[in-house]
């Protein structure tokens, strides 16, 4: 049964959490999209979908419980999205898994390496495969991959994170090489900065307090990128004219130097 009776364009936010994921969802919904929110935790998804519906009208957000480490889970969610909302016009692959305090290779288990790489990379491959056929059939589609500094630099302590993010960057370039000519605009966004979400935002604030840097607490926006400001970039990429498509873009808050550890 269609839950998108007005046939609005559809965005799938894969890895929909309270940071970049929700902000991107809200940005596109404000422009007339319906959003499919994909993540593992039902209560968080439900709260997010209800909040978006309350702010933008009933039926603008639906959630799909998905574990990106499993191909069947990804396929089943995208099949439900197609049945309930219609073909996906914009895919944002936003999930990422890392430790805040990194560990050396010898202290990193194979299980963690596998699990995190599935989230950082395999889920993106599977999600891309799910949306491409319909995008190609309609001759257009946007696929945006959320990257990180770890996608460009292999820093100590990030062995279970960085290889997957490197791969994600490569995947984005390959999508471009294989499908751009057929109307698919893929872009990789290098988030080279801490984001003011729950995890890193909260951790940064605690660090500043511990280290006696209260001035940073009064000037948060120049140290932590705001999810809503980042979401503006995703919208900008999606709405670029065909004569001027960006394939990769980096972003950081004003006082964050190039190549942060994220
Ligand atoms: N936060 C930063 O400072 C920062 C800096 C640089 C780059 N980035 C990149 O930006 C992206 C978004 O970061 P964010 O912190 O703003 O996150 P977010 O959008 O708040 O949430 C991402 C969501 O991904 C979901 N996810 C994780 N593993 C999953 C799995 N196996 N299956 C399904 N969903 C899964 C999580 O929800 P569930 O746990 O409910 O599944 C999480 O809430 C990530 O790719 C990250 O690498 C972030």
TrEMBL record:
<dbReference type="InterPro" id="IPR036291">
    <property type="entry name" value="NAD(P)-bd_dom_sf"/>
</dbReference>
<dbReference type="InterPro" id="IPR002347">
    <property type="entry name" value="SDR_fam"/>
</dbReference>
<dbReference type="Pfam" id="PF00106">
    <property type="entry name" value="adh_short"/>
</dbReference>
<protein>
    <recommendedName>
        <fullName>Short-chain dehydrogenase/reductase SDR</fullName>
    </recommendedName>
</protein>
């Amino acid at each position: 049964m269609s839950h998108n009776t007005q046939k609005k364009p559809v965005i799938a936010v894969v890895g929909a959490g309270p940071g970049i994921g929700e902000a991107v969802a809200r940005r596109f919904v404000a422009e007339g999209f319906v959003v499919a929110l994909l993540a593992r935790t039902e209560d968080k998804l439900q709260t997010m979908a209800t909040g978006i519906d309350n702010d933008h009208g009933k039926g603008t957000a639906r959630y799909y419980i998905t574990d990106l480490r499993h191909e069947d889970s990804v396929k089943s969610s995208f099949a439900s999205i197609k049945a309930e909302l219609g073909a996906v016009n914009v895919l944002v692959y936003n999930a990422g898994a890392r430790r805040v305090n990194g560990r050396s290779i010898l202290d990193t288990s194979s299980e963690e390496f596998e699990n995190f790489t599935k989230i950082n990379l395999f889920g993106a491959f599977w999600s891309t495969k799910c949306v491409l056929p319909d995008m190609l059939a309609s001759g257009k589609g946007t696929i945006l991959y959320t990257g990180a500094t770890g996608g460009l630099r292999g820093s100590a302590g990030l062995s279970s994170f960085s290889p997957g993010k490197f791969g994600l960057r490569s995947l984005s370039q390959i999508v471009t090489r294989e499908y751009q000519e057929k109307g698919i605009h893929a872009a990789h966004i290098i988030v080279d900065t801490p984001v003011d979400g729950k995890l890193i935002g909260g951790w940064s604030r605690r660090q500043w307090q511990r280290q006696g840097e209260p001035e940073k607490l009064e000037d948060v926006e120049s140290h932590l990128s705001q999810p809503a400001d980042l979401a503006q970039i995703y919208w900008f990429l999606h709405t670029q004219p065909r004569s001027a498509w960006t394939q990769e873009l980096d972003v950081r808050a004003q006082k964050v130097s190039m190549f942060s550890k994220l």
